């Protein structure tokens, strides 16, 4: 009997809400800003639950902690890369779908497109932003990316975007480019909060 060739198993997909930033420009914790009837961390958490086997929320030690079982304290405290490395430290055999709390415009259509077009043979699957560069904060990072990201961190290269632009990644066109907007100032928050409220009416 002929032996069947080995087939590579796609790693499980876990979710990570990146909420551990300092919120310096916003002046208040972005994770707890309300959009509609719930804080943004919870909205992002529930979005990821549809696509991920398990979802964590990353916060820094000084933040108010969400009331979820998988609340993770960022042990590196070096921006999004630190939050992701902490997540990989929890489980390095899964892929991590990250979503930052300051991206409240992201909807199911965007995450579904990312998950359906995931290429687990790449180090990551990401969307191209308006500048044609990868958007690192709505991205799937495969397990094989962990050691490379950690190496960059050890060399004090803390940019996930730099990692994506210099690595073997799958880059996708976002179905709704306008959703890949970071809301990190009070003016932007007031504007987009009103826009989201009117669109849901």
TrEMBL record:
Q: Which GO terms describe its molecular function?
A: GTP binding; metal ion binding; nucleotidyltransferase activity
> Which Gene3D superfamilies does this chain map to?
Spore Coat Polysaccharide Biosynthesis Protein SpsA, Chain A
Q: Does the keyword Signal apply?
A: no
Q: Tell me, which GO biological process terms does this entry list? A: Mo-molybdopterin cofactor biosynthetic process
Q: Which UniProt keywords apply?
A: Cytoplasm, GTP-binding, Magnesium, Metal-binding, Molybdenum cofactor biosynthesis, Nucleotide-binding, Nucleotidyltransferase, Transferase
Q: Which residues form the MobA-like NTP transferase domain?
A: 15-164
Instruction: Name the InterPro entries on file.
Output: MobA-like_NTP_Trfase, Molybde_CF_guanTrfase, Nucleotide-diphossugar_trans
Superkingdom to which the source organism belongs: Bacteria
Q: Name one Pfam family in it.
A: NTP_transf_3
By its UniProt entry, which SUPFAM superfamilies does this protein fall under?
Nucleotide-diphospho-sugar transferases (SSF53448)
PANTHER family from the xrefs? MOLYBDENUM COFACTOR GUANYLYLTRANSFERASE
Q: What's the protein called, per UniProt?
A: Molybdenum cofactor guanylyltransferase
Provide the species name.
Siphonobacter curvatus
